[in-house]
Amino acid sequence: MKKITVLFTVLMMLAASSAFAAITAQYPAALNATWKTYTGFTVNGTANNLKGLRNASEQFFNSTSGGFFANKTYPNATISVYNGTGEAKIVVFDKGVTPFLFAQSLKNVNGLVTMASNNATNATTYFVPASGYTFMIGLSNMTITNATADKNPSAAGALNGSAMSFLYDNGTTLGSTFSTSDTWDYYAFGSDNSTKDVFAICAQVKLNTQTGNDNAQVKFWELDGDTKTSGYTSWIDYNATTNAAGTKLTLDTNKAAPTLFDAATINADRTIITGFVNGSDDGEAYYAIMIRNGQTLSTNDLTNRAFKLVYAGTMDTDAKDQGNATGGVLEFSVDSNLGIDGDAAFINGTQKGSQDYISASLSGFSVALADTSFYGLTQSNMTIYGTDGSTPVGYFYGKQTAQKDMVVGFYEPAQASDGTTVDGLALAVLVPNAAATGVIAPAGAAYQNNGTLTLLTCVQNATSYSAKQMRDNWSGISSDFTPLTEVKGFNATWATGITKGDVYVTFQFPMNGVGDKVENLRLYKVFPTSAKTVRTFNYAGSATPSVEGSWWISTATADGYLNKNSVLAPSVDYYVNWVVKDNGNYDSNSTASSIVDPVVLGSMPTSSSSSSSSGCVFNPAAGFGLEWLLLMLAPMVAIVRSRFKK
Question: Which of 55, 193, 211, 503 could make an SS bond with 314 (beta carbons 3.0 to 4.6 A apart)?
Fold first, then answer.
């Protein structure tokens, strides 16, 4: 095992959690009167200064068969809580819970969705939304304290903990989930309830047929405490079982190999499965994410783009710490040289003050990327370097989804030197920064070709699509395109009397939360017709309100044009402007004096964006794998020891 020493500087910031910008965010369709799956895990810290313990215990929760109802007034759900040995309690969300709030901040990390504390979570949950808000990953500083004292591991004084939660559209495992052409990549994190040590599994899974014995095959690598075992690098038989509705999946074997799921659910796209093992396998309890046809990463997936990383896990503590559970949200952009700039908010492990979270700057860090078989199976290994550019701060091992809208994996910190060591592991998910957006409106007069035109109506609508759903609906959407907004639509009309075809109208919506280089962004017109036509707006060299199909980003409603080399800041409000000609190529309504215009904003990898500054349809290429940024957990602890490094 290689031990490397690194000294970091942590910049402490005491900004409170709040809305970070002035826009009034439009409520996402994906969270309006929709049924979701709500699931996740908590890592309970020890409050007794038990030096050397990485993990006291782990709990799991998931919404019951009734699901999680998301709407504008309050979330409503009943959840089951498990403590690693059996069901602990059924907990019902308060009906008076504050609805979701958008464009929120945690310390200096921006663009989050919050769900207020309630009698089920006992803490504010900070969600990072993925494309279209159809999948969200949450972090909270809590334990589920409503579970009964005789069954709740936190009842003995473990008052500090971290929780990772997932909220996504309900799916079914029936049908095409089982296919011999697919391989699923599996990551599990948890604890050994007998030793209170960390437990993890990295695996690949084939779900071949829906029924029958030995209908699945698995390769796996296993970590139990500090012991790394080789597992099986060739396929062994497993049994995959679903209930009649396809809402529950189990995955186990009678071989000398671990159970992978006691209970799991799938998202509507059938691309992500989440679930847990509740202590049934030799006392180990762990939570797992499994993605369909995972891919390794390339540097083009990272450069000139912005991401958020959510992680939760555990670490060894020294005597000054009050808890060993940890978690955080990192927000950062990656430049063309793989330099990092951004901020992080971490759960405060010491709990000696009133601050539940502490902050750190990520400015001056950098990354490097390579494939590795360190965990027995081929993964991407993202190494994070400190401000000196040469000393490793940590390592992340993982893969991205085939849709390239999410990356999952493990984070392992490196060693630091200030006399104390911290040893840890975390489960993490990385997604590109999604935008919080306001309603569509006409741009200011200076951005209008027909400056005296007065709209009579501008009826708003928005539709939620995941990255996969967009590609399924519009074949012209590139496999490299990651939507950062919902499909935002409107129907605008104005008084007749102006000659048909003479009207060019510039529309816009305000946004914040995006941190990409403008060159990597795309604006698409998605026609709501049976043909499902897609047209690409062309980024303008200046504000051009008389050019049909042009678009640009500005810092004001009619001023502040930004060129394609500009890099956006997530905390700043911008305006997305685009030009539509009445009955032109970008107007999906043939009626004069009326424009119907659904659009979606998204990002592309650097290789694709540099080769197509304009056009209609793009080309698949890469994805984003910043997940490795999990590694930034290291700066939070100040001193870290790299485990298991060869």
Answer: 55
Look up the pTM and report it.
0.84
What is the enclosing helix (H) or strand (E) of 636?
A: helix 633-637
Q: How many C-beta atoms surround the C-beta of residue 462 within 10 A?
A: 22
pLDDT value of residue 241: 93
Find the domain containing 501 and state its range. 436-611
Identify the residue with better confidence: 203 or 318.
Answer: 203
What separation in angstroms does the CA of 178 have from each of 181, 214, 249, 390? 9, 13, 12, 45
Q: Which of 167, 90, 183, 85 is nearest to 126 (CA)?
A: 167
Distance of alpha carbon 191 from alpha carbon 197, whole angstroms: 5
Query: Side chain identity at 16, as an amino acid letter?
Result: A
Both tokens of 643, joined, read 């485990």
| Beta strands at 534-536 and 521-526: parallel, antiparallel or unpaired | antiparallel
Total domains present in the chain: 1
How many angstroms separate the most distant Cα atoms in the chain?
A: 80
CA-CA distance, 580 to 596, in Å (whole number)?
9
Q: Are the C-beta atoms of 603 and 511 separated by less than 8 Å?
A: no
Residue of 586 and 353 predicted with greater confidence: 586
Dump pLDDT digits (tens) for 138-170. 998 864 433 333 333 333 333 447 889 999 998
**What DSSP element (H or E) covers 67?**
strand 57-70
In a domain, 486, yes or no: yes
Two tokens, residue 475 = 């074949």
Residues 6+ apart with CB under 8 A from 390: none
Alpha helix segments (H runs only) across 97-143: none
What is the average per-residue pLDDT within 345-372?
77
In a domain, 508, yes or no: yes
| 576 within some domain | yes
What mean pLDDT is predicted for residues 409-416?
Answer: 69
Statement: residue 53 has pLDDT above 60: no
The reported pLDDT for the residue numbered 10 is 24
Q: Does residue 273 sit within a domain?
A: no
Tokens representing residue 626 in the block: 């910043």
- Cα distance between residue 157 and residue 342, in whole Å: 35
Of 250, 256, 211, which Cα lies nearest the Cα of 236?
256
User: By mean pLDDT, which of 56-65, 198-207, 348-357 is the weakest?
Assistant: 348-357
Q: Which residue has the tokens 């209970």?
A: 263
CA 526 to each of CA 83, 184, 344, 427, 557: distance values in angstroms, whole numbers, following the listed order: 46, 31, 35, 36, 24
Residues 6+ apart with CB under 8 A from 564: 517, 518, 519, 539, 613
**Nearest residue to 75 (alpha-carbon basis) of 115, 103, 48:** 115
Mean pLDDT value across the chain: 77
Three-class SS of 207-265: ECCCCCCCCEEEEEEEEECCEEEEEEEEEEEEEEEECCCCCCEEEECCCCCCCCEEEEE
* Residue 495: partners with Cβ closer than 8 Å, 6 or more residues away: 454, 456, 593
Report the C-alpha gap between 307 and 250 in whole angstroms. Answer: 32
